[in-house]
Design goal:
The chain is α+β, with helices and mostly antiparallel strands and about 325 residues long. The protein has 7 helices and 17 strands. β6 and β7 form a beta hairpin. The chain is globular.
């Protein structure tokens, strides 16, 4: 999967501009046109399996967009002010490099601060080396992503946009490994999650699933003086119990936990105090959908250098394949 993840994370596709990553996913999966759909918002939906009397219609979602920035003003000297696409934090920005979708690269700088502390986004600018506004190769509304290569540090994989390209890679690999299932499974590669779980909202409405499951990253509590959270790299996928946007269906949490234990797959239970996933949107679709989330522990979320553990990635695939291969007890 390592080469797949590298290709995914190094493809620029911020919220609202997902076509390049969608094309890459389609090429990687290679399903017939009868089993795929691109809806009006841009979600890629791929169906697998025929529901048996004991099966369910299951929606799996991993968002293919990434955080980014958008040019909002260009001054007379060619410096670019920008707004955020998703959760972009100033603490990670200064000195970072970005790449616009037209190929132009730049460096983020900041204004001189009146007092010590962190700048706000409005005090940051992008320098693309232009000498004037007229010479600037960027126009208002152009989008950019952080520019960082994929790296391997022992068992850890590091890159920008592992949120949630690692989930995308896991769904692709799960699709390939899933040979038989009693369920009708919809693999949804959703758009615009970082700006409000918008893609999952429309996809869930259209699919009308019996059960929903998102696959996304979560924070960890395993760094020096980190947050108080019982999730760590290398200890397996995290089965979400709740986050700030949703409470997982208890029967789904129990079923995932039981399958992990029966299959000797290491796992963790996750309680996330800040943040949510596509599962929230699925849960609230139509008259309601029992939903949950399988999370990949990730350090430095929403920074240009997010980090996951390769064993967690493979174990997440194993858990999902086992889960989808069995009839559920509820």
């Amino acid at each position: 999967m390592k080469s797949l993840v590298k290709n995914l994370v190094e493809t620029a596709a911020p919220s609202g501009f997902e076509k390049p990553i969608r094309d890459l996913i389609l090429a990687e999966i290679g399903v017939s046109s009868t089993d795929q759909q691109i809806d009006a918002l841009g979600n890629l939906i791929i169906r697998k399996g025929t529901r048996t009397p004991t099966g369910k219609r299951i929606m799996l979602a991993a968002h293919m967009d990434e955080i980014g920035v958008m040019a909002s003003f260009i001054d007379e000297k060619g410096f670019i002010r920008f707004t955020n696409l998703g959760g972009v934090f100033p603490v990670h920005c200064v000195g970072s490099r970005v790449k616009f979708l037209n190929g132009v690269e730049g460096v983020i700088g900041m204004d001189k601060l009146d007092k010590p502390g962190l700048p706000t986004l409005s005090q940051l600018f992008i320098d693309v080396g232009a000498a004037s506004r007229a010479a600037c190769p960027i126009k208002i509304g152009d989008a950019a992503v952080f520019e960082r290569p994929f790296a391997v540090l022992g068992e850890q994989w590091v890159a920008k946009s592992l949120d949630d390209r690692i989930g995308v890679a896991i769904l692709i690999e799960t699709f390939k490994q899933l040979k038989e299932t009693p369920h009708e499974v919809y693999f949804v590669f959703s758009v615009q999650e970082e700006v409000g779980t918008r893609g999952a909202t429309t996809a869930a409405y259209g699919i009308d699933p019996d059960l929903g499951l998102s696959v996304d990253v979560t924070r960890t509590g395993d760094t020096p003086k980190g947050i108080m959270m019982e999730v760590a790299l290398g200890k397996g996928p995290a089965i979400k119990v709740r986050d700030s946007g949703m409470i997982s269906d208890p029967q789904l949490v129990q079923a995932l936990s039981a399958i992990a234990e029966k299959s000797s797959i290491p796992y963790q239970l996750e309680v996330l105090e800040a943040g949510t996933t596509d599962a929230r949107a699925i849960q609230l679709a139509r008259s309601g959908v029992p939903s949950g989330c399988v999370s990949i522990p990730c350090r430095y979320v929403h920074s240009p250098s997010e980090m996951v553990n390769e064993k967690d990635v493979y174990n997440t695939v194993n858990l999902l394949v086992k889960f989808l291969s069995e009839s559920l007890p509820f």
